[in-house]
Design brief:
Radius of gyration of chain B: 22 Å
Distance between the termini of chain B: 15 Å
Order of helices and strands of chain A: HHHH
Number of helices of chain A: 4
Largest sheet of chain A: none
Number of helices of chain B: 21
Radius of gyration of chain A: 20 Å
Largest sheet of chain B: 2 strands, antiparallel
Structural class of chain A: mainly alpha
Helix content of chain B: over 70%
Oligomer: heterodimer
Structural class of chain B: mainly alpha
Number of strands of chain A: 0
Strand content of chain A: under 5%
Order of helices and strands of chain B: HHEEHHHHHHHHHHHHHHHHHHH
Number of domains of chain A: 1
Chain lengths: 116, 493
């Protein structure tokens, strides 16, 4: 399972980098979205997968007697997803505004800044 | 508890200022008061650090490796004071230097938001919490760069946003790997575990991911390409603020991570850091030599001077680290003053283009003087702070036997002097070009001139009072060289 997920993470990273390197800024934003999915999945897998075990301790005992799955990576992913969501919203507004001001969605138009 | 104040104060003012958004006058003075309060909190933290060496608190009173720790030693206290001080005067400068529309659309709210993220990143001792503060900082800076939505700003913002989000993704991946390997997020605990077991391959690759993520923020050699197009785009006060805070926090975190974790693999990291430092210095200064826009010249110099700080990090001796930190604070003060005086020139001439300026020495000798101080300081002429910073770094470099990087640092100084002389010749000494209309009616804003004067004076003082500062920075370097200080302070209080 871990191997499969590792391959999936690699695939997601390569998709996102491919999209980031395209000239269209719409694909750029899609690339950013894929990047945040890939990192969330990476966070989830690196903590180690525990199959079929709950992420909490029974209320009578203070210390976990059985194997429990680690809840912390899930909390981290949740935070990362929320942040990624906010940032993606900003990026979408930014490219919308960029399109309205410049009338193009081509990244190569960006290079003008360096020539002035 | 004092450690939470620099985070809570700006957060509170973000909320307060949003409620005051109808009343611009009230908003801007309230915001300045907010930064003043942060400065007081930072000074209090510094005096406590001077009394006891290090201070720390646990969020929510959870014991150390489990809860989120907040920690201050000399390094974080110094950078904290410098950030609050510079932020205060940039606030006052921006009262007259940024147009009303931008101010109305939440400029000061964004300043406070940025400060929340910076202060959090300086004080936290938990890597995931650090990531969260970085995002707070980034989202404020994204809006600050694009606020106003001119074409060049939007272009700069797209590059800036993409590069920094990519950096954040690498940062989170690295956190995931570290957590998977060590099962902890507390920086002191991670350092302790690495001290015991050394850096294995996955951990060292996580360190490389951290290095790239912070390198993008700090704008070091292969990752600086976003900076020249996005920093000069917004109004000059915003550029000054971003250059004094964002890139410097990137350097601060690099110093922190290297001195806590990565120095175990010095034989791998040191050549990389030396190489990057040398190329960053040289390429930044060469790009500056070819530019003819004051903002661009100064922005390229940001890159070049980051190289010096990274060089001090690579040397990793008490003098090297103290020099890197001293240079960092010197750069915050001098670079901000230089940007401010460039802003004043723009108020006079209506442009940043050197070819359309001239004769400032006769028109406004005082502003010419205000530019002279940071220019000499950036070039490293004694007795300014730039001289002492470079002296410390170069002394440390030669004692460590790092010949190539140290000699390139010396050569880069000459080129820095060259671009400063270029600005001086073009804007200040050259007679005004005939085809340029004279703007005798255009006046400089008095509050802005006052704020620039205070910054210039404090940048001078930072050099003149070297004997006092030297002691403080050497202590900071001593604490950084041995990561046991950090571990003991948090895990065995």
């Amino acid at each position: 399972m871990t191997t499969l997920l590792a391959i999936l993470i690699g695939f997601l990273f390569s998709v996102s980098i491919y999209l980031l390197l395209r000239r269209s800024i719409v694909k750029l934003v899609l690339g950013l979205l894929f990047l945040s999915y890939a990192t969330s999945l990476l966070l989830f897998v690196t903590g180690g997968l525990t199959v079929g075990k709950p992420a909490f301790v029974e209320s009578q005992t203070q210390i976990a007697s059985k194997v429990v799955s680690d809840p912390l990576p899930q909390a981290l992913i949740l935070t990362a997803i929320v942040i990624g969501f906010g940032v993606a919203a900003f990026a979408m507004v930014l490219i919308y505004r960029f399109h309205r001001e410049t009338g193009t969605i081509d990244m190569d138009e960006l290079s003008e800044t360096n020539q002035k | 508890m004092i450690l939470f104040l620099p985070i809570i104060i700006p957060l509170f003012f973000v909320a307060l200022l949003i409620m005051m958004r109808k009343n611009l006058r009230l908003q801007k003075w309230l915001s300045a008061i907010g930064v003043l309060l942060q400065l007081f909190a930072a000074v209090t933290i510094f005096t406590e650090v001077r009394a006891s060496g290090t201070i720390f608190s646990q969020a929510g009173n959870w014991p150390a490796p489990f809860g989120i720790s907040f920690f201050a030693d000399y390094t974080s206290a110094i950078v904290l004071i410098a950030v609050s001080f510079v932020a205060l005067w940039i606030h006052i400068f921006s009262f007259g230097a940024i147009d009303r529309t931008r101010q109305k659309f939440g400029l000061f709210v964004l300043f406070q938001g940025l400060l929340t993220g910076i202060n959090g990143a300086l004080l936290t001792a938990d890597i995931f919490n650090l990531y969260v503060w970085f995002e707070v900082m980034l989202i404020s800076s994204f809006v600050l760069i694009s606020l106003g939505a001119t074409k060049s700003q939007l272009r700069g913002a797209v590059k800036y946003v993409v590069m920094n989000l990519f950096g954040s993704a690498l940062f989170v991946s690295a956190i995931g790997i570290v957590y998977g390997q060590l099962g902890t997020l507390n920086m002191a605990d991670i350092a302790l575990k690495i001290n015991q077991q050394g850096l294995n391959l996955p951990l060292n690759s996580a360190m490389m991911l951290f290095f790239i993520a912070f390198g993008i923020k700090a704008a070091v050699f292969p990752f600086y390409f976003w900076l020249p197009s996005s920093y000069p785009a917004p109004p000059v006060a915003v550029t000054a603020f971003l250059s004094a805070t964002l890139t410097k926090v990137g350097v601060y975190v690099l110093i922190r991570f290297y001195s806590l974790f990565a120095f175990h693999q010095a034989e791998f990291w040191q050549p990389i850091i030396y190489g990057i430092a040398a190329i960053t210095m040289v390429s930044g200064v060469i790009m500056a030599a070819s530019a003819y826009d004051i903002r661009k010249i100064l922005s390229f110099h940001i890159i070049s001077q980051i190289g010096y700080m990274i060089m001090g990090l690579g040397i990793f001796s008490v003098f090297g680290l103290a020099g890197a930190l001293y240079f960092l604070v010197h750069n915050m003060l001098s670079k901000t003053t230089a940007f401010m005086s460039a802003g004043l020139m723009q108020q006079k001439y209506g442009t940043f283009d050197l070819k359309k300026m001239g004769n400032l020495y006769r028109l406004h000798p005082y502003v010419a003087f205000l530019f002279l101080i940071p220019a000499l300081s950036l070039a490293g002429i004694p007795p300014t702070s730039g001289f002492f910073g470079k002296f410390l770094l170069i002394y440390a470099g030669f004692s460590a036997g790092a010949w190539i990087v140290t000699i390139s640092a010396l050569v880069v100084s000459i080129f820095t002097l060259f671009s400063m002389v270029k600005i001086w010749n073009e804007a200040i000494w050259k007679p005004l070009p005939e085809d340029v209309p004279v703007h005798d009616e255009k006046r400089m804003n008095r509050t802005s001139v006052f704020a620039s004067s205070v910054m210039a004076f404090s940048s001078l003082l930072f050099g003149f009072a070297i004997t006092w500062f030297f002691d403080v920075f050497i202590r900071a370097g001593e604490q950084l060289v041995n990561n046991q200080h950090y571990i003991n302070a948090i895990l065995n209080p």
